[in-house]
Specification:
The complex is a heterodimer. By secondary structure, chain A is mainly α. Chain A contains four helices and no strands. Among the domains of chain A are: about 1-45, no CATH class; about 55-85. The longest helix of chain A has about 35 residues, at about 50-85.
């Protein structure tokens, strides 16, 4: 394989190339075969799942961060609830006046503990 | 141009990982080495230069780490395989053949090729990473492709029968 096919490599790599050289290289069957082989080589070399592996790597890194954010959210909710309660979210007030007074009957007797009459 | 280390990490972690994955052939080691690059970056001043130069500088660190890893591995005895090599599924066979073919390349040719194919670097960035001129990068990539084409003729022939994309990603 001659160096004239370097222009095909440059073309595939999105690097500057001389169009007339590329046309000449692709006019030969060997040049066209080289172009297809390099494309196939690219697929063969890039491992299947490479992108997924990179993505799962990113997810793996994010997992502890998610746990930390969840823990922080729970803490903020608890602390917030505590402070709202402290500052009078439910303000303590005096007991309301009685609406009915129950009087003990006249025959009322105290019974010693543990005895039933 | 001042570069934020975190932005540099976000922009480059995946391509560094892909480069290492093929350069060392192991996913876990590739993850560790990717982390090591940024550990080194955090201890050094990032050069005030253009994007291509900074990327080249980052990958020069990566390349040194990969070379260190290879040197250490050469000093250690090879572990005995616990799995029968013949029991590998076909996709792993191809993966293994690719790693073998890459290992037979000249070190610099392999790095130049991997930075292009796995990390997607341009010739200027690769030149910066490897201390070469862009023309030398172009020649080395071409040479690596010719050699890999010869060594991986069978998987390439098989792959040519399936629809493909210019980028190399699966259709």
């Amino acid at each position: 394989m001659s160096d004239t096919h370097e222009v095909i490599s440059a073309f595939l790599d999105d690097e500057p190339f001389d169009p007339s050289q590329l046309a000449e290289a692709l006019s030969e069957p060997a040049g066209r075969a080289f172009l297809l082989d390099v494309l196939a080589l690219r697929h063969v070399v890039q491992p299947q799942g490479g992108h997924q592996a990179a993505a799962s790597e990113q997810q793996r890194r994010r997992a502890p961060l998610k746990a930390l954010i969840a823990a922080a959210a729970v803490f903020v909710a608890l602390a917030g609830g505590y402070f709202v309660g402290q500052r009078g979210g439910v303000a303590p007030t005096d007991a309301p006046p009685a609406t009915r007074v129950v009087e003990a009957p006249a025959a009322w007797q105290d019974v010693p503990a543990g005895r039933i009459r | 141009m001042t570069v934020d280390p975190e932005a540099l990490f976000v922009a480059n972690q995946h391509r560094l990982f892909r480069y290492f994955r093929r350069a060392v052939g192991q996913t876990d080691t590739a993850r560790d080495l990717t982390q090591d690059v940024f550990l080194r970056v955090s201890r050094t001043a990032i050069p005030k230069a253009g994007e291509a130069e900074v990327t080249g500088w980052l990958f020069s660190i990566a390349r040194n780490l990969a070379l260190d890893h290879h040197r250490k591995r050469l000093r250690r005895p090879n572990p005995v395989a616990l799995v029968d090599d013949n029991s590998r599924p076909p996709t792993q066979d191809v993966d293994f053949a690719v790693n073998e073919a890459l290992a037979r390349l000249d070190d610099l040719d392999r790095d130049v090729f991997l930075m292009r194919e796995m990390a997607g670097l341009g010739y200027q960035e690769i030149a910066g990473a490897c201390g070469l001129t862009p023309d030398a990068v172009r020649s080395r990539i071409h040479r690596a492709r010719l050699e890999l084409r010869r060594q991986l003729a069978a998987p390439i022939a098989t792959r040519r029968t399936i629809p493909m994309r210019h980028s190399g990603r699966e259709p």
